[in-house]
Design goal:
The protein is mainly α and about 80 residues long. It is about 60% helix and about 0% strand. The chain is globular, with a radius of gyration of 14 Å.
Length: about 80
């Protein structure tokens, strides 16, 4: 289940930072292992994964706060 939370953090990053703003950010599944975003290494904790997810959501909200209209983006 924790891997799903980590995956969702990368989904936030991918859609809002990479696709929406065109930032060159790390996306785990774009490497050698397409399921890398679901793996939880020994050095990650539930707190660190939830913190990652919360930080990505906060960044997405900052990005959206600076947009006048989503219509311009969807065009």
């Amino acid at each position: 289940m924790l891997g799903i939370v980590k995956h969702l953090g990368y989904v936030e990053r991918n859609w809002f930072q990479r696709r929406f703003l065109g930032r060159d950010v790390y996306i785990a599944w774009r490497g050698v292992d397409p399921d890398a975003d679901f793996h939880i290494p020994d050095d990650e904790t539930p707190e660190s994964v939830f913190g990652f997810y919360a930080a990505e959501i906060a960044e997405s909200r900052r990005i959206l706060a600076g947009v006048d209209s989503l219509d311009a983006v969807a065009a």
